[in-house]
Specification:
The chain is of the alpha+beta class and 164 residues long. The protein is built from three helices and four strands. Helix content is 52%, strand content 21%. A hairpin with a 4-residue loop joins β2 and β3. The radius of gyration is 34 Å and the shape is elongated.
């Protein structure tokens, strides 16, 4: 009787060990598949990130903050490029609040007053600006100067107006 108990105990232990082995093997394989899937995802996102970084560098090539020569120009005359950009942007947006026609937009608004929506600094001299009256819109290239008395001068180099 003792032999049968040991034999049943042995078989039970053997079955338990086989069950544990199969269960752990299944978990291990599942985790390996998950790891392979996640590595593939990470690789895909790294490639996408590299592509986006390259695109961002291309976009920022023509910008004040991405142009070392333009930033050096402002540093040489005693200004910080980011502060100049902020001041000029605020000055342009403040012109939207003036009564009557916006002085730097070369077109009269047909459906309302022409207002500047966005500006993009190309370098230490030029800005591209987008304007609209709500129905009609256009773009223009501005030339800007920071005078010795810290006043700002804006000149329209060119502009165009789109239709509806």
């Amino acid at each position: 009787m003792k032999k049968k108990i040991y034999m049943y105990l042995f078989f039970f232990a053997l079955l338990y060990i086989i069950f544990q082995y199969m269960n752990e093997k299944q978990i291990y394989e599942s985790q390996e598949d998950d790891i392979a899937f996640l590595k593939n995802k990470v690789s895909k996102y790294e490639k996408e990130n590299d592509s986006l970084s390259t695109q961002l560098m291309d976009v920022n090539y023509f910008s004040l903050q991405g142009n070392d020569n333009a930033m050096t120009y402002f540093e040489d005359v005693g200004h910080e490029a980011s502060e100049v950009e902020k001041r000029v942007r605020e000055y342009i947006y403040d012109l939207n609040a003036k009564k009557g026609k916006n002085p730097i937009v070369p077109y009269d608004g047909i459906e309302g007053k022409m207002k500047i929506n966005k500006v993009k600094f190309l370098n230490h001299r030029w800005i591209v600006a987008d304007f609209t009256d709500g129905t009609y819109w256009g773009e223009m290239v501005l030339e800007y100067y920071i005078n010795e008395d810290d006043s700002i001068d804006l000149n329209v180099i060119g502009s165009l107006l789109y239709g509806k």
